[in-house]
Structure formats: C-alpha cells, structure tokens
Amino acid sequence: MIAPQSVGVVTPQRAEFTTPLALRGGGTLDSYHLIYETYGTLNAERSNAVLVCHALSGSHHVAGTYADAPHNVGWWDNLVGPGKPLDTRKFFVIGVNNLGGCYGSSGPNQINPATGKLWGADFPFVTVEDWVESQAHLADQLGIRRFAAVVGGSLGGMQAMSWALQYPERVGHVAVIAAAPKLTAQNIAFNEVARQAILTDPEFHGGHYYEHGVVPARGLKLARMVGHITYLSDDSMAEKFGRSLRHGRNTYSYDVEFEIESYLRYQGDKFAGYFDANTYLLTTKALDYFDPAFEYGGNLPAALARASADFLVVSFTTDWRFSPERSREIVYALLHNKRNVSYAEIDCPAGHDSFLLDETRYHKLLSAWFDRIEV
Amino acid sequence: MTAYRYDYDVITQWIEPGEKVLDLGCGDGELLRHLMEVRQVQGYGVENDPDKLLGSVRNGVNVIQMDLEKGLVGLEDGFFDHVIMSLSLQAMHNTQGILREMLRVGREAVVSFPNFGYWRHRQSILNGRMPVSESLPHQWFNTPNVRFFTIADFDALCEINGIAVRERLAFDEGKLVLEEPNFLASVAVYRLGLER
C-alpha cells in the first residue's frame, strides 16, 4: 500500500487512421484521428491495458495535469494513479477523446480533409458502436490485442458494455458504472430539451456557426443547465443550496435571487465557454440511439449472450437519471447468460454525478475488483 | 466467526459439480468460494451489507447487492439448481416470502438455522437468561436475529406451506444428531423442494 499519488504531468498524443470507418448512421470517415493519453506502462505481454471511456462532457484527459496548465486535472484523476483504485503501477491506462468530440479528435470543430474547412454540422452522426470500433483501431495501433478491462461511467459505461458485445474476445473485464442498457423516454426527453435549446439559438446557423465567428452560447448554456439538474439529486441540491437567497430577501426580479439560480447560470456559462455545441448534439444523439437489445426484439439477455467478460455493475441510490433499476436490468441479463457479474448499489447522496466522486465504499469496491484482475 | 459453520460440509455434499448456485446472505463469499473450488459451481451471492459485499468481491466471488426482505425480484423461475441460505433465515422478517422465492428461482432450497429448542438454550431460559451459545453468539440486545424458532416450528411451517423436506441433518455443535434433534441439536440443515 502506498498513499495515492497523481500520475503527474501528462501529454496528449495523436493517432492517425487512414482506413475508412463505416459508421452505423450510414456515413463514412475516410480518414480520422484520435487524441488520447496513457498512464502507466504497457507490460511486455501487453496484457495490462485498461481503457477508460468518457461520458457526455468528458475527454481523453482522464488523469494527471498538463505542464502548461497545472490546474487542469483529469476528470477521473481520483480513480487513476499510483495507489489509486485503477493503479498505474499495475495497469496501463488509456483515455481517448471520442469521434465527434471537441477536444482534438476528429469532430465538428476539426478540419474536414475533403474540404479543408471545419466540419461543423457536416460531421456524420456517430454511435456508441462507432466509438468502440474506433477505440479498437487505436488499440491495434498501440499493439493491444486484448484489454484487461474497459471501464466507464454513464455514457462511458455504455461503451464499456458495447465493448463486451462487439469485441468479446478482446476484453477480459468490464465495469459499467451509473449506466443503463438504453435510455428511457424521460431520459431522451431531457436530451431533446437540451438539443432544442441549441438548435433554436439564433447563433447556431445550422451548425456552421464557426464560419460566422459566433457560438450558440445561450443554447449550450441552457442545455447544460437542464443536464446539470438531472445529474444532481433533490437531496444534494437541497443540502447545497436549499432556498438560500443571495440578498437575504426576495427582490422581485429575474436577476439571480436564489443561490441555485446563480449556480446553474455559472455552470452553464462556464460550459458554454469551452464545450462545442455540435459535439453536444452528436453525443446526446449517441446516448439516445444506444440500445443493444433493439435488434434482438428488445430482449436484453439475448443481446448480452455474446459477452464473455467478467462484469462489475455499479449504481448509486440517488441517481435518478441512470437509476439502480436500469443497472439491475444489465445484471439480470448477464446472470441469465451465466456470466460472472457483481453488482453494488452505492449509498451516495450526489445523484448521477456520484460516479465521479471518491466516495469511500465506491472506491474500495473498485480497488477490490481491479486488484482481482490478473495481468 | 466461521468456526461453527460445519453446515458447509453438508451443503457441499448436496451440490453436484457444475451446478448454478445462489447463496443468499453470502457474507464474504466463503461458502461460494469453497463450492467454486470443490464443485466448480457457477455461483452468485446475494448480500446487502456493503462491507460484506466488498469481502465477496475481494474473494473473487460474484455478488449481487439486493435486499432479501423484498424477495428475489428479477431472478428467473427455476434458474438455479440450489438456492442456499446458511444461518440467515432467523435474521429475516419475511420468512415465508423468502422461502417461497427460494423455491421459485431454485429447483431446491438449502436452509440452515440455529435451533432455539436446543437443550442448552432451554436450560438457559429456565435459568432466566436468553441463550448465548456457539450457534447463538449474540446477546439479546445486539442480535441480528429477529425470528426465534425451533426445528419443530420449521417442520410445521414447511407443512403448511407445501414445502417438502427432502433431507434434514441436525448437529450438536458439529456432531451429527440422530435422535431427538429438536432437543439435542443446535443447528439444522434442510434440503427443501416443492411438494408435487
């Protein structure tokens, strides 16, 4: 045992792909590139690689910091590093920015090689399955035949699950955290509100806002505000903000009065300052489309029959966006197929965002599970 | 903690190699680990205590977090060959419900419990104190047990619920008891099915 440490300063890398990628939505990327980071060392047998898949607003920057931005800490830094649950003394960990993302991988804010201009709204629709396929091509380039584990929370958990279905022979263990086998109507509804906020922003310009030198910041801000509400629990919001008033009394105006308003506006503005609206649209659609049971007539156990990995499924008691019931569906479907699966429901007040926290029981569980993985 | 779990040997004998086994209240997964090693079972534990669940994961045992008081919702009818509940039935409120659920999802149920009718326990009560023994290690004020019943009580319960007792073994702190089990045995292990 050592005290948990940071992986330290990291440098993103770029992988180029010239073999065309046929996408589920019908489009094709003739060539593309992925930005990724790695932590730890790939062993001689190349058997200790773990892929960490990111969620809606995540990136390849999973852990560590940058030399020129020491405060830019990876989004799952509490999980990945020496002495942390996903211990980089044992594992070689990879984070990759998904296709269609806005952190440097091929996506709407990158140059379309065919036109020499930014892709914008012309970037094709991408699905969870497309992401997994592109990640497999990255693994090929890195000489990784089989991942010791693929791990993800939320939309990242869907990718981890999809790995077990698309490449059952290439993944030994899968951790599906705060995820679901498909979105509910309510969940799609939240995504649709977010998309409408962006699509109806006058500065969206059909997705080609870059050419106009503007961004649909209002729409993106609203989208984030709606999303943020659903990532927190009623209790956590009540505890954090309650009905606290900025001025200690009602001022009868539409300026910030309640602290929750201030918080949501701040989060929305911040997000609109760095995230790309087209990526938000594409990514929420990928969430909506994910439904591996669809081609099996909605029969999830039949869909998961292909999986051979050992699973860990984790949910959080106060997560109502990806509720424990949805995780249990995955567990029962795996059980039906006699797959190895463990399931924990973590008592944590923080709602969907719990999966990003270093809640003690949660991280102890992940540590125990990763410790069992032989590399 | 595990010294008195001689019911494990009996349970192991009743499990055929390669069976699908569900262990309710599996703790740190010790029994399942054993059954995986000596019977190559495809085993799953159910546990609701986060610390015990962690123990099972550390032991490399499949474990599903679930509140047994709510039954085994989501598990398929007849999926398991054996559903085990080792020394936990007395700690559940929903006694009849869980027995019904065990025999719904399993072909057979295996249940072990401490016999409150054991002579030492009777003697303790006659002396005016609640029993504390190897099979009942807790004090009355900190026991997790909520149901206090004897072998005779359990037989009667099976009778009224249409549960067939296919086999029953009784022990006095590790030694097999053949006569007067309700008086002489501290623990009983049952193999149960549904009456046809």
Automatic annotation (TrEMBL), chain B:
Pfam families: MetW
NCBIfam families xref list: metW (TIGR02081)
Protein name, per record: Methionine biosynthesis protein MetW
Native organism: Thauera mechernichensis
Underlying gene: metW
